[in-house]
Specification:
Order of helices and strands: EHEEEHHEEEHHHHHH
Strand content: 15-25%
Radius of gyration: 19 Å
Largest sheet: 7 strands, mixed
Mean pLDDT: 80
Number of strands: 7
Distance between the termini: 34 Å
Number of helices: 9
Structural class: alpha+beta
Length: 276
């Protein structure tokens, strides 16, 4: 299993109908297509990409990995949140990193479908998979896919009303486009900085899924917004040299190893001049 980050967009050739009966055939088919798409992008299955695990709580695993990305569904782009749930009680970070397949208990996802799917609950589609990609079931045998009331009742209490506990980020396209606009505006006035446009491309491809669309930090991944450019350059150079700096070193070292001096300058300039 490789320690790398993921691209921010998934293309899913699936439809987005109005919510149907929970766990029905339509929901099962939709969940199956989502799983297939995740496998194709190495977000699920034997060759799944790996992030740095962090402690979890019920009803999820003892250790968790969380990925935030976008999925495009029939021309609609929505947020896809993937959470891997590890156990049993007492499992450590090193054990999950070393043999993740031995400890993976389930994969839960939230996918924000098109407006009109379920307006009262944020248009979220929910699914819980077993490690082999089959759907887990409720005690009465209903596949967990669609409008999962147990998930909804818990996530409804999330701060900000977005049903997301690990981040209060606004994932709306308007904010994502604003970030790009900010970068373009500031590119002309940032003297002595790297190429901000090139830095944005690196951030969106390599950094965004863990650190967030506004560099606000997600789950165990720290906030980068507001950091000085020189600090970002220094930290990336440390990771590139193989130096362990903090709990995410196992993830960051192989990523930074592939960055050139120019890449580091560019992405650091983009973060420092775009996000506050």
């Amino acid at each position: 299993m490789k320690l790398v980050t993921i691209a921010t967009a998934l293309s899913l050739a699936v439809s987005a109908p109005v919510a149907q009966e929970f766990g029905g055939q339509q929901d099962q088919d939709y969940a199956g297509q989502l799983w297939q798409s995740m496998q194709e992008r190495n977000l699920a299955g034997d060759n799944a990409l790996q992030a740095f695990p962090y402690p979890g709580t019920d009803p999820h695993g003892v250790m968790l990995e969380t990925f935030y990305t976008d999925a495009t569904v029939d021309g609609h782009t929505g947020t896809l949140v993937i959470k891997r749930n590890y156990g049993p009680e007492g499992v450590t970070v090193d054990q999950v990193l070393g043999r993740p397949g031995d400890h993976l208990a389930a994969v839960t996802i939230m996918f924000r479908r098109a407006e009109g799917y379920s307006p009262d609950t944020g248009n979220w589609f929910w699914a819980k998979y077993l490690p082999d990609g089959t759907l887990d079931e409720t005690p009465d045998g209903t596949p967990i896919a669609g409008m999962a009331q147990g998930c909804i009742s818990c996530h409804a209490s999330a701060e900000g009303g977005d049903y997301l506990f690990t981040t209060n980020a606004d994932f709306s396209p308007s904010l994502q486009n604003a970030a790009a606009g900010d970068a373009e505006e500031e590119a002309s006035s940032a003297e002595g900085s790297g190429d901000i446009a090139a830095g944005e491309a690196i951030y969106q491809q390599t950094c965004r899924s863990c650190h967030g669309p506004r560099a606000q930090g997600l789950a165990s991944f720290p906030r980068l917004a507001g950091l000085e450019e020189s600090h970002l350059v220094s930290r990336l150079e440390q990771y590139r040299s193989g130096e362990r700096v903090g709990p995410n070193s196992a993830l960051m070292i192989p990523i930074a190893r592939d960055l050139s001096d120019e890449d580091i300058a560019n992405v650091s300039a983009f973060i420092a001049t775009t996000f506050e």
